[in-house]
Design a protein that fits this description.
Rossmann fold, seven-stranded mixed beta sheet, Alpha-Beta Plaits, globular, 3 domains, alpha+beta, Elongation Factor Tu (Ef-tu), domain 3, binds guanosine-5',3'-tetraphosphate, eight-stranded antiparallel beta sheet, 14 helices
Length: 531
């Protein structure tokens, strides 16, 4: 324990994950409204930003000099200090989206009630699942016709492999949406469309036990259906178990409508009670408890400023323990240097705020002259521990990169390597050759455009990208036991190595992965690389 325990304990740091258009931005806006961080919903993240064409997006990044694709929002609510990590989910989906999840202590999964579990929710969920952090589900858009509630829960359980426990239950949907039944209070909250931008409106609350009042409030058909569903639900659903929630084995489920601001406050209230204070994090000397240690942090994202003249970058770090003070000296463990962090700032949606102090749970951005890498640790000068690295996630799109002017070999190599070091792309080489042929792998296709644009603008190198058909990459988990030269896979399999020399296999489809495993007994393949 140290004197910052109180500040640390009131922090809640979470990410919101969803498939595009499920309502993540709208829900975030409403959260901020409750926190009083902004007055008007809609000004959080220019929604238009997400829809800009590639070139405009670049311009915006340049103009603002910060990432508009992933930002951190901090607000106060009911004595809590809340950090929301925005995970880009649109066409700019990239490794950063995954890495951001490494900095969160819990995740809120937003699902569109008429769509159910969608592709990107599945991918993001997998990463949260890997970390075993608590996951809360907000089923959104109940003001529109929704899928059957039991079917939605069933889909979450089957598709994502997590048990569900509804905290509230919707009464109808679309034109017939009457409100939600809150199970703990055994009361109905009636739906009121409070329009964009206002706080949650007047809600009538009626205990379900008072059946006459209930029938008067929501009518006979809705009451009959609700009473029947409650009975079914109480018999069928998993018991609420906070331990299981904390371990990411059970997801509390909420229903509402972010747009009309219904069910958001109920969510926030329960969520803040159930989610965790900043979690301990694993380092090479064991678990580091947030309140037991002085300042420590790790870098989870590096954002190039795209300022041609300076090539400066912002390194985002998550504070894992203690208190950060703008004047203190810290040790950059991987760089082996003690230093003052330059221009520490809190990055809000559209502004930077120079920051004096911050606590475990908070995210800060610091000016990076090119010394930090993803996963690096910062701690007090007297300490030397390093946090467990951030896994490298499997890219899903691959292209061969060639420079147009072969005379610019040096700039080309330097540019590609620097951009890879920031973590925007992953680079691979043919298994038995050097840097003359580079294969680039990315999580989101937009990164290809980013690479081309940046090489041209910052390094003056024109490149040509040739798309490759591979969709799956696997690291060889037991590389010391396997003779990669002798591996026999399918004819469309390709052997490559990453910049650290680790052997990898590229596959066109998942069938080839299975075949290769069949043909090489003892071979172990992995979707993540932990080095
Ligand atoms: P995202 O960040 O997850 O991509 O989703 P976003 O919040 O941008 O919402 C996507 C669309 O869904 C928006 O409509 C938004 O207004 C709408 N939406 C969000 N929550 C609800 C809800 O609870 N009910 C209903 N009916 N709609 C909701 P849009 O027309 O694409 O954008 P806009 O013109 O409203 O900005």
């Amino acid at each position: 324990m140290n004197q910052y325990t109180e500040e640390i304990n009131r922090r809640r740091t979470f990410a919101i994950i969803s498939h595009p258009d499920a309502g993540k931005t709208t829900l975030t806006e409403k959260f901020l409204l409750y926190g009083g961080a902004i007055n008007l919903a809609g000004s959080v993240k220019g929604k238009a930003t997400a829809r800009h064409a590639v070139s405009d997006w670049m311009e915006i990044e340049k103009e603002r000099g910060i990432s508009v694709t992933s930002s951190v929002l901090q607000f106060e609510y009911d004595g809590f200090c809340i950090n929301i990590l925005d995970t880009p989910g649109h066409q700019d989906f990239s490794e950063d989206t995954y890495r951001t999840l490494m900095a969160a202590d819990s995740a809120v999964m937003v699902i569109d009630a008429s769509k159910g579990v969608e592709a990107q929710t599945r991918k993001l969920f997998k990463v949260c699942g890997m970390r075993g952090i608590p996951i809360f589900t907000f089923i959104n858009k109940l003001d529109r016709d929704a899928n059957d509630t039991f079917d939605l829960l069933d889909e979450i359980e089957k598709e994502l492999g997590i048990a569900t426990c509804p905290v509230n239950w919707p009464i109808g949907s679309g034109k017939g949406f009457k409100g939600v039944y809150e199970r703990e209070a055994k009361a109905v909250y009636t739906y009121s469309d409070t329009e964009k931008g206002t706080r949650e409106g007047e809600t009538k609350v009626v205990p379900v036990g008072e059946e006459t009042a209930l029938r008067e409030l929501i009518g006979d058909p809705a009451s009959d259906k609700l009473l029947e569903e409650i009975e079914l639900l109480d018999g069928a659903s998993a018991e609420f178990d906070l331990e299981a929630v904390r371990k990411g084995q059970l997801t509390p489920v909420f229903f509402g409508s972010a747009l009309t601001n219904f069910g958001v406050e109920i969510f926030l209230r329960h969520f803040l009670q159930m989610t965790t204070t900043p979690l301990p994090r694993r380092a090479d000397i064991g678990l580091i408890n947030p309140a037991d240690h002085e300042f420590s942090a790790f870098v989870f994202k590096i954002q190039a400023n795209m300022n041609k003249a300076h090539r400066d970058r912002v390194a985002f770090m998550r504070i894992c323990s203690g208190r950060f003070d703008a004047n203190m000296e810290v040790r950059h463990v991987q760089g082996g240097k003690v230093m003052r962090l330059s221009q520490p700032q809190q990055i809000m949606a559209d502004e930077r705020k120079i920051l004096e102090e911050a606590y475990a749970g908070d995210i800060i951005g610091v000016f990076d002259p090119g010394i930090f890498s993803i996963g690096d640790t910062l701690c007090m000068p007297k300490e030397k521990f390093a946090y467990e690295g951030i896994p490298t996630f499997a890219p899903e799109h691959f292209a061969r990169v060639r420079q147009v002017d072969t005379m610019k070999r040096k700039q080309f190599t330097k540019g590609v390597q620097q951009i890879a070091q920031e973590g925007a792309i992953q680079i691979f080489q043919e298994f038995n050759s050097g840097m003359e042929e580079i294969i680039v792998g990315v999580v989101g296709v937009l990164q290809f455009d980013v690479l081309k644009y940046r090489l041209e603008n910052e390094y003056n190198v024109e490149i040509r990208l040739e798309n490759l058909p591979y969709e799956h990459i696997r690291w060889i988990a037991n590389k010391d036991e396997v003779d990669v030269e002798k591996l026999t896979g399918t004819s469309d399999m390709k052997k490559v190595k990453d910049m650290k020399g680790n052997p990898l296999l590229l596959f066109v489809n998942s069938w080839s992965i299975g075949m290769t495993l069949d043909r090489n007994r003892g071979l172990e393949l992995s979707e993540f690389c932990r080095e």
